[in-house]
Here is the input.
Amino acid sequence: MAKERVFSGVQPTGNIHLGNYLGALKQFVELQDEAECLYCVVDMHAITVPQDPKELREHVLDVASLYMAVGLDPKKAILFVQSEVSGHAELGWILNCSSYTGELSRMTQFKAKNKGRESAPTGLFTYPVLMAADILLYDTNVVPVGNDQKQHIELCRDLALRVNHRFPDTFVVPEGRFMKSGARIMSLDDPTSKMSKSAENIHSRISLLDTDAKIKKSIMRATTDSDMTIRFDPENKPGVSNLLTIYSALSGMSIPEVEAKFDGAGYGDLKKSLVTVTQEALTPIRDRFDQIRHSSELDDILDDGAARARALAEPVLDRVKEHFGIGRLK
Ligand code: AMP
Ligand code: TRP
Here is the structure.
């Protein structure tokens, strides 16, 4: 049987954090040995909000380097930059013409990002359609992402099915793969909202490239509660439960094992131990990142990735255009 095709993407904004790592990147690495994987740095998604051009370029290389620092091997997986494969934009437009403003208005991420504004940037509104194009352009079977992308994956499937209904066998209908534990890492200072790249308080998140001192500071001041027992109960004890989730995901211990380890201990003990576990997990990533980011290989790897991605995208895009009747027949 042919290997399954896997696609996923991460935005090149700064601060790739533990949520991105545990919710997405860790799965990417697991999948590279069993499937044909494409992992993309989605710079065209990043410009749905204003970006500083110089910083954006740097961040593209940062994320590509982080991909490799967390264990992706460019010999196994295709690593590339979205804007370097023009098929994403082309298919994005075609799918825009098959989507409805009503369904896009229901996307919770759009609603959250656009809170209170009367008019929204059009790119922000159609962002999930470009994401669908990213996925469908490669006849993708599986999309590993964090839980927060569930609705976008559903939309992608809806679009694929809708087009297939009109033009049979145009798209492969993909499935999301959501990680069970650690799928949603919450913010350290407000454990009722998810850890995010853009939150103002830097201590709300642990970035993968944080120093040991920063890791310690952020964890030690994480919000807990006044109840004093270490127990996994996201509803009533969101802060402590989030620390347990991170502990479990980084150490490989199950949540009940972590609970048992800290039975009768104080929050300070849990936090101190979590500081060590986190530092031990991130130090090797930081070291590899430093090597790769400034190596001359990085450009060659991304050139090669884009060429391989283009070769896979071309026949799919030809098929889509043929079915829609655009362009002359090849
Ligand atoms: P983004 O930073 O939005 O480009 O997200 C990159 C990947 O990380 C996506 O697959 C997200 O679902 C995932 N992700 C982002 N934030 C979190 C979080 N707090 N917890 C778990 N996964 C997350
Ligand atoms: N929208 C995703 C996020 O914010 C990033 C993304 C863009 C993506 N295109 C994708 C993820 C395709 C998976 C597949 O996290």
Q: What stands out?
A: The pocket of adenosine monophosphate (ligand 1) is lined by residues 10-11, 19-20, 23-24, 145-146, 148-149, 183-185, 194-195, 197 (CB under 6 Å). The chain has two domains: 5-183+296-324, 202-290. The mean pLDDT is 94. The domain at 5-183+296-324 is CATH 3.40.50.620 (Rossmann fold).
